[in-house]
Write the structure tokens for this entry.
Amino acid sequence: MAKQYGFYFDADRCVQCRTCELACKSVRDVEPGMKWMRVVEIWSGVYPDITRDFFALACMHCGKPACIEVCPTGAISKRDEDGIVVVDRGKCNGCRDCLSACPYGVPQFGEDGIMHKCDLCSGVDIAPACAVWCPTEALKFGTLDELLEMAKERGGKRMDGPTEPSVIIAGESPVASLIT
């Protein structure tokens, strides 16, 4: 694979404005009720030491996507040139095996019963809209090498997980360990 593209997320900069969600829905014309990008709340700790964090969750474009392994029709693939995980909607039979395999619950099924998900705005003349429109730059897009370099300043690292998510987490945020 030539390059692996992914996301950089800085929970300290995220103000939960949900502009990433709106940008995705607007640019990609995502059908009502579906969110290819969503801001999720993550609660942790034991009372009275409870914390609440947020995470911008979209397809992780994993290095080892579990969804590909279980797809009986071969509708899901990982592009060699950029590592983006894509769905051939013409091949998807709507079985939902990918949903149960994905540790992040990313695949969604539209009114037509076919799987939809983030494809990093492939085929649209814009970098991923969610990252472009993020007003605080909490969410960024680039190659993993670029994003890791950016994260070094904040003590960030690649998100852990058996599927090798292509997400870089800035700082010492507990988000990376909580989402897996």
